[in-house]
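Could you join me in thinking about how sequence relates to backbone shape in a protein? Would you write everything just below, so we can both look at the same thing?
***
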Amino acid sequence: MKNSKTKTICFTNNKGGSGKSTACANLAYELSRAGKKVLMVDTDMQLNLSLSFFDEEKVLEMAESEKNLYYAIKKKDDLKDYIVSTPYENLDLIPSSTLISQIEYELFTMMQREYILKKCLKGIYESEEYDYVLLDAPPTLGTWVINILCTSDYVIVPVEASPWGLFGLANMFDFLGGMGEMTEAAVMGVLITKVDERKNYYKQTREILAGYEAIHVFDSFIHVDTAIEWAQDASVPVGIYKKSTRSAKEFSQLAKEVMEYGSR
């Protein structure tokens, strides 16, 4: 594990639509609200993490500039120079670019290609300015995701409570298990998302996950909540849009679980 007080957590699931970006953005906000200094890294070409805090015009401006993650990786730059402040105290972002879709090709020509992101984050880790670095990974299992895992201490796997929510999860865990000594990233837990208690999928999902030996499932889970969609439309965390809403309280509880896990 890195010689740094900073805990790095990646949100990953090779299945799209699991709620990774939503969970990453809202956990980051709740951790910052609890007084933790948090840096988010948007590693996906869809830019959803960036869109959670800035309007589309600003996100596209950052994506089209050369001050985003794609160019930092391409140049092997220190990511300290790519940090953007969000409107919220203790919460910063390294934005992504649609060009990140080409990152597998860029990495192919590099030596020790699995560790480029870790090297680019080295200065940030050495500064120990941040309590948490949260990375929103794309829904793939290639070299880029290996880079993300190689710099992570912990993994959170969001899983949608739906008939297809667990599809491919065994592949995800096999992929993590097959990385061997490349990474020390441990699965902090599975986060069940998009729960609708009028349906039985939440209970089924928990029962199936119970069959995965030694995989922790967070007590916190995230309900389907229209406030999340409205918050996304406004490019704000749900706790800013309406802090009394159920999902805002659930993300706050998740932050407590994450902080308690890190203090063990």
In short: The first helix runs from residue 20 to 33. The chain has a mean pLDDT of 91. The radius of gyration is 17 Å. Residues 172 and 231 are 29 Å apart (CA to CA).
